[in-house]
Specification:
The complex is a heterodimer of chains A (109) and B (116).
Chain A: E1 3-5, E2 10-14, E3 19-21, E4 24-26, E5 31-38, E6 45-49, E7 60-61, E8 72-74, E9 83-91, E10 97-99, E11 103-108
Parallel strand pairs in A: 2-11
Antiparallel strand pairs in A: 1-4, 3-8, 5-6, 5-9, 7-8, 9-10, 9-11
Chain B: E1 4-7, E2 10-13, E3 19-25, E4 32-38, E5 44-51, E6 57-58, E7 67-73, E8 76-81, E9 90-97, E10 106-107, E11 111-115
Parallel strand pairs in B: 2-11
Antiparallel strand pairs in B: 1-3, 3-8, 4-5, 4-9, 5-6, 7-8, 9-10, 9-11
């Protein structure tokens, strides 16, 4: 079955601390992984996709097919990073996105 | 960037009535729109995919006669919850995508439906 797992519902860190939001997926084919972010009172928006291999707002994520993971990392968290983060999986050539349950990141000053 | 709007943002209705939710792409033509449902503290679950001018494709377990989707133009899709019941209370989110192949989905702000 196709599934995305985000084991942490809440992750709290202090400003300047490193952050890693975990995401694991289950899919037998070639996956395409995404991270979406939802800031307070705002809509869901794309943060980054693994194919792009880019760093957005200091965040990076590497697809590890051996561990079926796509963890989101940032070396120094900022208060403005506080938001809800969703990992998503796109399978095959479809447009469907399968979302994880999300992790709320709280960055304290 | 591309903007997707939803109307209404919040609706309360009585059990047995029907509710229509609109999803509009404001500054681009959306060949495909998606409807998601999100229960509290849970993930977004795809309900259906709609392409302009054709019938929507529903996910397994979603009743197409219960959740009517119309994508009559390249900028508008509607979701009608027919004969709503309290268990239909949820947060409904649409997204829109332009073109074919991979294109980013742009999400609407969501509609909170409460059925009394």
């Amino acid at each position: 079955a196709q599934r995305v797992t985000q084991p942490e519902k809440l992750l709290s860190v202090f400003k300047g601390a490193p952050v890693e939001l975990k995401c694991n997926y289950s899919y037998s084919g070639s996956p395409e992984l995404f991270w979406y972010v939802q800031y307070s009172r705002q809509r869901l928006q794309l943060l980054l996709r693994h194919i792009s291999r880019e760093s957005i707002k200091g965040f990076t994520a590497d697809l590890n097919k051996g561990e079926t993971s796509f963890h989101l990392k940032k070396p120094f968290a900022q208060e403005e990073d506080s938001a809800m983060y969703y990992c998503a999986l796109r399978t095959g050539n479809t447009d469907k996105l399968i979302f994880g349950t999300g992790t709320r990141l709280q960055v304290f000053p | 960037g591309a903007v997707v709007s939803q109307h209404p943002s919040r609706v309360i209705c009585k059990s047995g009535t029907s509710v229509k939710i609109e999803c509009r792409s404001l500054d681009f033509q959306a060949t495909t729109m998606f409807w998601y449902r999100q229960f509290p503290k849970q993930s977004l679950m795809l309900m259906a995919t709609s392409n302009e001018g054709s019938k929507a494709t529903y996910e397994q377990g979603v009743e197409k006669d219960k959740f009517l989707i119309n994508h009559a133009s390249l900028t508008l899709s509607t979701l009608t919850v027919t004969s709503a019941h309290p268990e239909d209370s949820s947060f409904y989110i649409c997204s829109a995508r332009m073109g074919q192949g991979w294109h980013e989905q742009f999400f609407g702000p969501g509609t909170r439906l409460t059925v009394l």
